[in-house]
Amino acid sequence: MPAQRLVLLVQAMFYIGTGLWSILSRSTFERVTGPKTDYWLVRMVGLLATVIGLAILAAIWQTAIDTAVWLLAIGSALAFAGVDVWYAIPRRISRIYLVDAVFEFVLVIGLAVSWYASRPAV
Length: 122
Description:
- The chain is mainly α.
- It has helices spanning 3-24, 26-33, 39-60, 67-88, 96-118.
- Helix 1 packs antiparallel against helix 3 and helix 4 (67-88) runs antiparallel to helix 5 (96-118).
- It is globular and about 50 Å long.
């Protein structure tokens, strides 16, 4: 599997895994990320992360990966990282989300480099 698709696969599996985890095991999810007051919101974000992951996973098996998929992948990672940093630094959410932010920022770099490298030569 080419490196570009491997980066997308890592993101897809991470989003699917964490998305489903937040829905299927509230107790372990809250043990790691801290207690939640609006669990409907956790479910919503978990479902969205799962759908994003599934869309990216489906795109990996296409002959060409469309620009829209790269934008979804990079935009999602930036959105998650931004919320993580914005709310974890002032401690409105658990500091463990800063670990996720670092992962998301590294993912953005990998995705951007992969997208650039996968563009056809002009």
